[in-house]
Amino acid sequence: MSSNRTTFATKLGVIAAAVGSAVGLGNIWRFPYEAGQNGGGAFLIVYLICVLLIGMPLIMAEFILGRHSKSNVGGTFKKLAPNTGWGVIGYMSVLASFLILGFYSVIAGWTLEYIYQAVTNGFSGLSAAELKTAFTEFSTDTYSPLIWLGLFLLANYFIIVGGVKNGIEKCSNIMMPLLFIILIVFCVRSIFLPGAEEGLRFLFQPDFTKINSNVILRAMGQAFFSLSLGMGCLITYGSYFSKETKLGKTAFTVSTLDTLVAILAGVMIFPAVFSFGISPSAGPDLVFITVPNVFQRMAGGYIWSILFFLLIAVAALTSTVSMFEVVTAFIHEEFNMSRRKATGWVVGVTAVFSVICSLSIGPWKDYTILGMTVFDLFDFVSANILLPVGGLLISLFVGFRLDKKTSYNEITDNGKLKCWYFNPLIFILKYLAPVAITLIFLSNFGVLG
Ligand code: TRP
Question: What are the backbone dihedrals phi and psi of residue 371, each rounded to the nearest 5 degrees, phi first?
Fold first, then answer.
């Protein structure tokens, strides 16, 4: 089976696909709202530490597993540790995928509505307060979000059926660089808004008294979410890497670019938040009620706004495709189902989850579990619990169970490349990352003080 498995076609394709998975709504929608709710600059510092000490090593761990096993997330643990409990990682990954795809697709649908609004000039002349009202009316409506959601899922279906090479790679190659450029333009505009300094101070001047165990948990969850970690997404993509792909360099590039995009999103949003008198802790609505205000103040705002939401939608698409691929490859390879049929199932189940998420914001918003709507619950449980637990297990697996020689050979291309960080990496995977994740959990869920 492994001999006729596809690989990414070019070097740029590898990077673009991995960056395409990492960069998405996590950077532009989730990072600003989590930072806004959890201490701004203090959150950013903890976030950066998590990316560096836990995120990058875990990206390496997933890449090592994927390229070595040449298999989907379920098959990986079946091959490398047959008939052991490690196989549970595969099933946890499937659960995490569905939960994330559930709420993520809803937000992706919102970006489509915003493309439509941009094209039909629906924002023009609205005040900050009116833009907020318009957003609330749309997002709590029963049907309009569902229509966009359906369209978005359909697009995913066709890309996943088309397969890795044609679908994912081509999309990412063009769109990712464009997104980068346009973000920089918006940052510049945002920085020159009246009162912008307050926003920059909020993001870059950490108030360390704001750091508590909840802030740390959320920063860690955000790091996992943004880097696509902890549910075998990078195992799956790693399995499509060719022998020539340099794992260390790819991991470094992906995490650096991903972090840069998140910071750019922050620089675009927080000055505008303060300039327009929006609350930084507005939650998941934050980007949607902030960004249209910026366009109104830009020369050529009409074109900019269309481009912006288009690129966000594509960034979301390259991310959801990577999540769909996790489950599709799993079912297709482990249960001998055709790729088309597997895709149909996966998209179908996601449709059910996401419709529930969408309705939980509007007509069903009074039904809450642990004080959260279904949408918030899926978001919280996946990012802050399932992904870190998955990451913990993957870390332990590569640290203790996988032969050290195997890891070394994957990273150094059988000894051909130099690797100064091999021993520290193994140390982090064995001890530092698992202990850190465990402590963060314990202090949050009331066991430690
Ligand atoms: N990282 C993506 C984002 O920031 C979302 C994503 C894609 C993801 N694949 C994932 C999150 C796997 C967790 C696990 O938008």
Answer: 80, 5
Whether 228 lines ligand 1, by a CB cut-off of 6 Å, is yes
Nearest ligand 1 atom, CA 227:
1
- Residue 320 CA: which ligand 1 atom is closest? 7
113 contacts 144 by C-beta, under 8 angstroms: yes
CB 398 within 8 A of CB 234: no
CB 24 near ligand 1, within 6 Å: yes
What is the pTM assigned to this prediction? 0.95
Give the integer Cα–Cα distance in Å for 92 and 95. Answer: 5
Q: In angstroms, rounded to a whole number, what is the distance separating the alpha carbons of residues 168 and 418?
A: 31
Confidence of residue 3 (pLDDT cuts 50, 70, 90): very low
CA of 124 to the centre of ligand 1 (A): 32
Q: What are phi and psi of 62, to 5 degrees?
A: -65, -40
In the block, residue with structure tokens 């314990």? 442
CB burial of residue 334 (10 Å; 0-12, 13-18, 19+)? middle
Q: Is 370 left (phi over 0), alpha (psi -120 to 50) or beta?
A: left
Of 237, 321, 322, 350, the residue with max ligand 1 atoms within 8 A of its CB, to mutate for a pocket test, comes to 322
Give the 3-state secondary structure of residue 24.
coil
In single-letter form, the type of residue at position 111 comes to: T
pLDDT digits (tens, 9 = 90+) for 148-203: 999 999 999 988 887 666 656 677 777 778 888 889 999 999 999 999 999 999 99
Q: Is the CB of 97 under 6 A from ligand 1?
A: no
